């Protein structure tokens, strides 16, 4: 039976990425060696990093004056590295859920964290839009897509530079990089396997604060060493490159955004139509294109386990919702074909007929 991979991360990758990576595990770039067993400083591997950096710049239209890095430690280490490198006395954070809160926790080690707005009052089911950012904050941090709560944030208007955690929607839609001092993302959703972290940082924003930064946590060190201050995660970075090539071939972020909007619409329309289910995000413009969260309608609450079992039996993998929201979460990342979304919709309709 066909398996439809709705996991939130690590999650579905393009067939192209898996095939090319599998080939390179056996024979990388004609070296007769595995990509896992060549030096990161070999000319073949340096070419991988160079091409990946160039493709990130091309696909996201990264302006001059920004550096692209492939680091390790996940987005969680970026929660710390961002304030370490960029925060003076104060930084502003938009609190839209679990990942924003974790980012704020790390920033508090360095100074005053101003929570400009929060949607905690409604279990993060909407995006606050009206708020003021203190002019003396070093930056405003936001989470562009809330993987757990199924909401998305458009780059906020602010009078200070932006810092964004784009872990779960990077490359899913265009982004105005110039508004940002820093963008970071764990690779394991739209890019590759876990183990690599993408960082896009404005060179000019660095070196401005009066703080000793440990070597491994200093973006400038990684920039000077072109992501090779220490051994990069070679296999994940190789896989990331394959996904970037795949995305370019497909027409880039503008093309994939159209597909993502279409895919999400198919699913949200069914959730809104089907009497058994309801979206957890009432405001349509706040609904994520990557993580579609929904629950049983209150009068059908007792059917939750039955639907999960029914859908699992039909090949729907990973649709159990995060414990802080409950219900279901179908992640529809770039690599997910619309056929899989349609298969889930068919399953929901079949389940409705049974009840
Ligand atoms: N931010 C967001 C939006 C996420 O979805 C995740 C992981 N799912 C993280 C941060 C944490 O990423 P990592 O596990 O790579 O540290």
TrEMBL record:
<dbReference type="Pfam" id="PF00266">
    <property type="entry name" value="Aminotran_5"/>
</dbReference>
<feature type="binding site">
    <location>
        <position position="165"/>
    </location>
    <ligand>
        <name>pyridoxal 5'-phosphate</name>
    </ligand>
</feature>
<comment type="subunit">
    <text>Homodimer.</text>
</comment>
<feature type="binding site">
    <location>
        <position position="188"/>
    </location>
    <ligand>
        <name>pyridoxal 5'-phosphate</name>
    </ligand>
</feature>
<protein>
    <recommendedName>
        <fullName>Phosphoserine aminotransferase</fullName>
        <ecNumber>2.6.1.52</ecNumber>
    </recommendedName>
</protein>
<keyword id="KW-0663">Pyridoxal phosphate</keyword>
<feature type="binding site">
    <location>
        <position position="41"/>
    </location>
    <ligand>
        <name>L-glutamate</name>
    </ligand>
</feature>
<dbReference type="GO" id="GO:0004648">
    <property type="term" value="F:O-phospho-L-serine:2-oxoglutarate aminotransferase activity"/>
</dbReference>
<keyword id="KW-0808">Transferase</keyword>
<dbReference type="InterPro" id="IPR020578">
    <property type="entry name" value="Aminotrans_V_PyrdxlP_BS"/>
</dbReference>
<dbReference type="GO" id="GO:0006564">
    <property type="term" value="P:L-serine biosynthetic process"/>
</dbReference>
<dbReference type="InterPro" id="IPR015421">
    <property type="entry name" value="PyrdxlP-dep_Trfase_major"/>
</dbReference>
<dbReference type="GO" id="GO:0008615">
    <property type="term" value="P:pyridoxine biosynthetic process"/>
</dbReference>
<feature type="modified residue" description="N6-(pyridoxal phosphate)lysine">
    <location>
        <position position="189"/>
    </location>
</feature>
<dbReference type="GO" id="GO:0030170">
    <property type="term" value="F:pyridoxal phosphate binding"/>
</dbReference>
<keyword id="KW-0963">Cytoplasm</keyword>
<feature type="domain" description="Aminotransferase class V">
    <location>
        <begin position="5"/>
        <end position="344"/>
    </location>
</feature>
<feature type="binding site">
    <location>
        <position position="99"/>
    </location>
    <ligand>
        <name>pyridoxal 5'-phosphate</name>
    </ligand>
</feature>
<comment type="pathway">
    <text>Amino-acid biosynthesis; L-serine biosynthesis; L-serine from 3-phospho-D-glycerate: step 2/3.</text>
</comment>
<comment type="pathway">
    <text>Cofactor biosynthesis; pyridoxine 5'-phosphate biosynthesis; pyridoxine 5'-phosphate from D-erythrose 4-phosphate: step 3/5.</text>
</comment>
<feature type="binding site">
    <location>
        <position position="147"/>
    </location>
    <ligand>
        <name>pyridoxal 5'-phosphate</name>
    </ligand>
</feature>
<feature type="binding site">
    <location>
        <begin position="230"/>
        <end position="231"/>
    </location>
    <ligand>
        <name>pyridoxal 5'-phosphate</name>
    </ligand>
</feature>
<dbReference type="InterPro" id="IPR015424">
    <property type="entry name" value="PyrdxlP-dep_Trfase"/>
</dbReference>
<dbReference type="InterPro" id="IPR015422">
    <property type="entry name" value="PyrdxlP-dep_Trfase_small"/>
</dbReference>
<dbReference type="InterPro" id="IPR022278">
    <property type="entry name" value="Pser_aminoTfrase"/>
</dbReference>
<keyword id="KW-0028">Amino-acid biosynthesis</keyword>
<comment type="similarity">
    <text>Belongs to the class-V pyridoxal-phosphate-dependent aminotransferase family. SerC subfamily.</text>
</comment>
<feature type="binding site">
    <location>
        <begin position="75"/>
        <end position="76"/>
    </location>
    <ligand>
        <name>pyridoxal 5'-phosphate</name>
    </ligand>
</feature>
<keyword id="KW-0718">Serine biosynthesis</keyword>
<comment type="function">
    <text>Catalyzes the reversible conversion of 3-phosphohydroxypyruvate to phosphoserine and of 3-hydroxy-2-oxo-4-phosphonooxybutanoate to phosphohydroxythreonine.</text>
</comment>
<dbReference type="InterPro" id="IPR000192">
    <property type="entry name" value="Aminotrans_V_dom"/>
</dbReference>
<keyword id="KW-0032">Aminotransferase</keyword>
<keyword id="KW-0664">Pyridoxine biosynthesis</keyword>
<dbReference type="GO" id="GO:0005737">
    <property type="term" value="C:cytoplasm"/>
</dbReference>
């Amino acid at each position: 039976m066909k398996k439809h991979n709705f996991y939130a991360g690590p999650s579905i990758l393009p067939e192209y990425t898996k095939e090319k990576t599998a080939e390179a595990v056996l024979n990388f770039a004609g070296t007769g060696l595995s990509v896992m067993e060549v030096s990161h400083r070999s000319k073949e591997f340096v070419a991988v990093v160079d091409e990946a950096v160039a493709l990130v710049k091309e696909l996201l239209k990264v302006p001059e004056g920004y550096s692209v890095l492939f680091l390790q430690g996940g987005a969680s280490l970026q929660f710390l590295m961002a304030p370490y490198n960029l925060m003076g006395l104060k930084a502003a954070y938009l609190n839209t859920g679990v990942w924003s809160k974790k980012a704020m926790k790390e920033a508090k080690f360095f100074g005053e964290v101003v929570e400009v707005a929060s949607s905690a009052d409604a279990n993060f089911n909407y995006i606050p839009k009206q708020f003021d950012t203190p002019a003396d904050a070093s930056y405003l941090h936001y989470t562009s897509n809330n993987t757990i709560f199924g909401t998305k944030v458009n780059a906020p208007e602010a009078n200070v530079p932006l810092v964004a955690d784009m872990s779960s929607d990077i490359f899913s839609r265009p982004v105005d990089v110039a508004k940002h001092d820093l963008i970071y993302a764990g690779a394991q959703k739209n890019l590759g396997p876990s183990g690599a972290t993408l960082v896009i940082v404005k060179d000019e924003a660095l070196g401005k604060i009066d703080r000793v930064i440990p070597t491994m946590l200093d973006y400038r060190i990684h920039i000077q060493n072109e992501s090779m201050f220490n051994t990069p995660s070679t296999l994940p970075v190789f896989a990331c490159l394959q996904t970037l090539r795949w995305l370019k071939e497909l027409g880039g972020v503008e093309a994939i955004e159209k597909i993502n909007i279409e895919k999400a619409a198919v699913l949200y329309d069914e959730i809104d139509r089907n009497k058994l289910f309801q979206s957890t995000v009432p405001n349509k413009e706040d609904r994520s294109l990557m993580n579609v969260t929904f629950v049983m309608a209150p009068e059908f609450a007792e059917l939750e386990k039955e639907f999960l079992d029914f859908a699992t039996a039909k090949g729907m993998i990973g649709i159990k919702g995060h414990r802080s929201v409950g219900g279901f979460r179908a992640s529809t990342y770039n690599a997910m074909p619309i056929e899989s979304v349609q298969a889930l919709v068919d399953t929901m309709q079949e389940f409705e007929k049974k009840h």
